[in-house]
Design goal:
The complex is a heterodimer.
Chain A (H helix, E strand, L loop, with lengths): L2 H23 L16 H6 L6 H4 L1 H22 L10 H8 L1 H33 L3 H12 L6 H15 L6 H27 L2 H9 L4 H30 L1 H7 L7 H10 L4 H34 L2
Helix pairs in contact in A: 4-14, 5-14, 6-9, 6-11, 9-11, 9-12, 10-11, 11-14, 13-14
Chain B lengths: L1 H31 L6 E9 L13 H12 L3 E9 L2 H11 L6 E2 L3 H9 L6 H4 L8 H5 L2 H10 L1 E4 L2 E4 H4 E14 L7 H4 L15 E4 L2 H12 L1 H12 L5 H12 L4 H15 L4 E3 L3 H7 L4 E5 H13 L4 E4 L5 E9 L7 H11 L2 H11 L2 E2 L7 H10 L12 E4 L9 E4 L5 H5 L3 H5 L1 E2 L6 H15 L5 H22 L1 H4 L3 H21 L1
Parallel strand pairs in B: 1-2, 1-3, 7-8, 7-9, 11-15
Antiparallel strand pairs in B: 4-5, 6-9, 6-10, 6-11, 6-12, 13-14
The chains are: A mainly alpha, B alpha/beta.
């Protein structure tokens, strides 16, 4: 424990206490005893002892957000648009888009992320579907079986899988395939869980209604179940697609570092090449790509929710 | 009344938390040591796993030993120990902090040169004038290390010439080479490993790793590109046509070439090597060679010793070879940053590590070779004990002579019947050392060029048709998405409008029924 840590702890505790104190002191007093607004009575006051306003409750998170999310983001922006001497320049972006190998690197990351997501959906959907139609107790055990690996340290699991691939004789030979296997292995639970929770919450009477109206099982699935589970697919895909693009540890462990991922490129710029400006620029490009991905999938999501609701 | 009580409660809570903090703080400080004298905190930053530590305790044993040593001298020192992963990492840490962060750090040779050139380090003689002539370190350090630090690695600084030894005291050093196992598939592997370019051979397809670090792999690339030149030079030197200093200068020049033409050639060479590789690694190689995933592992000598030790417990014999064309020798040294606050204590720390006992413990734990020889060559005694060496030439056949006099103060000729194993890795004989050169740091421009080359090697260039195909696919996807999103506006569907009307009618009917 050094003094900085202790000082930080003291600051955190004092700040929390101060926020709690002021929040209590300047709390809103416009709640009646029945919780309706606009009535101020002493009784109501006593009942709402910890009546922080919503804004006040946001302060700790706001501070955290500003310190560890917004501030670093500005640093990245500053670094990306400056050169070593501190002048504003777009050289980093020009360099990125004028180097064929980095462009391929970007495409490769997108391809890996896309294939991983597709394979994850293909494996997870039938599984989640079966699970959601099982008896609760048995289904629960199976869900646990799939979630449990998440509790074991990933490095350990990766090493085990690596030995297995070596046993097959694939290690060092099929780098792309190995990387995909590793990615799917790592991210599959993130796909199963949202799908499972969407499917289990689904109103089964809608399927029954479709069957009553004469739709076969396939037709019911395609027209009712699948559209209703799209939100689950989307959120699962988001949880797989975005981290996969930067999860270079897996490509290093299973692909011998021969499958280039954009996250590795950024890491190298910071830790080995000592070029923070270029690294930041690549980080910004990746951020934009992720943002576009979210926008696109978000668009699909809202469309389909409306479509589902209008059924 | 109740409100007042509550306010009191809050004040009480704050007071309590403050008291708790103070207690906590004093408790922590108290744990560090409560002997006499003002407490001095020494901040050490070292490579990971790079100092003696028996791992059963939660503190670093060597640091505690130093604290005890200082307490005997009447100082109350607490060591704060941290680690770094790469030289660049440490450099950035110091650069960003722009002030006091560490008192003593342990970067590699080229990074010491870079930091010294940028004025980030203190000259050790500025703290203690007699450091180079009369100190624990100067008495115990190996003559070889002192010669390298004082004479071989030099650069211009302003008008004067400075040496590596002005800024750093040697800690560990090592060479680079191939660790290999004897495989039946390639009977010539032992000879092959004396040649850097063997790993380009298809006999080693997918059985070799190189470093995922541009500096080290660039070195192998150079050896491939200038193979003929290097071999001619070696032959000329062996046959006496070239003097030793000439040989060494030329060798250093070749391995430090960074002009555009060389970089392009190295890029081509390493790109053609990539398909033959099992992979790039910095850490996994030393276990992969033990488990038999690979046959050849491009290694630093310390990792080589580690791998051999590990393999022995699996009954596998690994060997280490330094190729004939020449290799890289590297040194990690302790330096004191310009803005360190405890410079005197930091120097004490450097001296403390130079005691032979501590050097032996560190070397046993780390696997690299210590820069310390010991005042009376204690390290040689340790080596003789550990590796069961003979000091007199045995009568039996099969022994070979290892002359380590270059490293120790006195004559150090030993005999061993085991070649290419831990002993030779840790204490390379003079003929191996002769062909090892130092690699200077790349300046900013060169560094950028070489890193760009590295990106090109690790990535790959898709053919044009594939690029066009991907771009077309992406454009099509975007168009499909836009069509999907604005389909209502683009194709006004009649049934949609009808549906809406029906809905409103339905609602009206519902209301009427309610009425």
């Amino acid at each position: 424990m050094d003094y900085l840590t202790i000082a930080l702890l003291v600051v955190v505790i004092v700040l929390t206490a101060a926020i709690a104190f002021f929040a209590f002191r300047y709390r809103k007093r416009t709640y009646g005893k029945d919780g309706r607004e606009g009535v101020t009575t002493d009784k109501g006051l006593k009942r709402r002892l910890f009546a922080f306003s919503r804004k006040q409750l946001c302060i700790p998170y706001g501070v955290f957000l500003a310190l560890f999310v917004v501030f670093p983001l500005f640093l990245i922006l500053y670094n990306a648009f400056t050169d070593r001497s501190g002048h504003i320049s777009f050289d980093n972006f020009i360099l990125f888009f004028s180097t064929p190998s980095t462009i391929t690197n970007l495409f490769m990351s997108l391809l890996i992320a896309f294939v991983t997501t597709a394979v994850c959906i293909l494996i997870a959907y039938p599984l989640a579907y079966i699970l959601s139609r099982m008896k609760a107790s048995r289904g629960y055990i199976l869900v646990m079986l799939f979630v449990m690996p998440m509790w074991i340290n990933f490095v350990l699991r990766a090493m085990a899988l690596r030995e297995l691939l070596d046993l097959f004789g694939w290690l060092g030979e099929y780098n792309f395939l190995n990387t995909i296997i590793g990615m799917v292995y790592d991210f599959l639970p993130f796909m199963i869980l949202p799908l499972y929770s969407t499917l289990i919450k689904m109103d089964r009477s809608l399927e029954e209604a479709a069957a009553d109206l004469g739709a076969g099982r396939t037709r019911t699935f395609v027209k009712v179940t699948l559209p209703l589970s799209v939100p689950g697919i989307i959120s699962g895909a988001m949880m797989v697609f975005l981290p996969t693009m930067s999860c270079y540890v897996i490509s290093e462990t299973f692909g011998g570092g021969k499958i280039p991922l954009i996250g590795k490129l950024i890491e190298e710029q910071f830790l080995a090449a000592d070029n923070w400006h270029y690294g930041s620029a690549i980080a910004i490009i990746m951020l934009i790509i992720m943002f576009i991905t979210m926008l696109v999938t978000g668009g699909f999501k809202s469309e389909n929710v409306r479509g589902g609701a209008s059924l | 009344m109740r409100r007042f009580a509550l306010r009191k409660m809050f004040l009480f809570m704050i007071a309590l938390s403050l008291v708790f903090c103070v207690l906590f703080a004093t408790g922590c400080a108290g744990a560090g040591g409560s002997s006499e004298g003002e407490e001095i905190i020494l901040r050490v930053c070292n490579w990971e796993d790079y100092i003696f530590d028996d791992e059963e305790t939660d503190y670093i044993d060597m640091c505690v030993r130093f604290e005890d040593y200082m307490r005997e001298k009447g100082y109350n020192v607490t060591v704060t120990y941290s680690t770094f992963g790469t030289n660049e990492n440490l450099y950035n840490d110091l650069k960003i902090a722009n002030g006091y962060l560490y008192d003593v750090v342990c970067p590699s040779d080229y990074m010491i040169e870079k930091m010294a050139r940028e004025g980030m380090l203190t000259k050790l003689t500025e703290i203690d004038e007699s450091f180079k002539t009369d100190s624990v370190y100067s008495r115990n350090a190996s003559p070889y290390i002192k010669r390298i630090f004082e004479e071989d690695i030099t650069w211009e600084e302003g008008d004067s010439e400075v040496t590596l030894g002005d800024y750093a005291a040697g800690y560990m050093w090592g060479t680079m080479g191939y660790v290999y196992r004897l495989v039946e598939r390639v009977p010539t592997i032992a000879e092959d490993m004396l040649d850097w370019t063997s790993i380009w051979d298809s006999a080693y397809r997918h059985r070799v790793t190189i470093k995922d670090s541009v500096r080290d792999s660039y070195f192998v690339g150079i050896a491939y590109v200038y193979k003929d030149e290097l071999e001619t030079l070696k032959r000329d030197f062996d046959e006496g046509r070239v003097s030793f200093s000439e040989y060494k200068t030329t060798l250093t020049e070749i391995f430090n070439r960074t002009d555009k033409e060389t970089v392009d050639k190295v890029e081509e060479a390493l790109s053609s090597l990539k398909d033959n590789l099992f992979g790039f690694e910095v850490d996994s190689g030393k276990t992969d060679i033990v488990t038999g995933k690979i046959d050849v592992y491009f290694a630093w000598s310390g990792d080589a010793v580690y791998a051999m030790d590990e393999a022995e417990s699996d009954n596998v014999e690994l060997y280490y070879a330094v190729p004939m064309q020449g290799s890289n020798v590297f040194f990690d040294g302790w330096c004191i940053p310009e803005k360190a606050q405890q410079k005197e204590v930091a120097l004490e720390f450097i001296n403390f590590l130079a005691y032979p006992d501590n050097a032996i413990d560190n070397m046993e734990y780390i696997g690299y070779t210590t820069s310390i020889a010991g005042e009376n060559d204690e390290i040689l005694e340790w080596a003789i004990d550990t590796y069961e060496l003979e000091t007199e030439e045995p009568e039996e056949e099969g022994y070979y002579e290892a002359d380590l006099s270059y490293f120790f103060h006195g004559d150090a000729v030993v005999y061993t019947d085991i070649r290419g194993r831990q002993f030779e890795t840790q204490f390379p004989t003079e003929d191996i050392i002769e062909r090892c050169v130092f690699m200077h740091y790349f300046d900013v421009e060169t560094n950028e060029r070489i890193n760009l080359m590295w990106e090109n090697i690790k990535g790959f260039t898709l053919p044009l048709w594939a690029m066009i195909l991907i771009i077309v696919a992406i454009v099509l996807l975007i168009v499909a998405y836009l069509l999907f999103k604005f389909r209502d506006k683009l194709f006004k569907r009649k049934d949609f409008v009808v549906k809406k009307e029906k809905k409103s009618k339905y609602k009206i009917i519902e209301k009427k029924n309610l009425d």
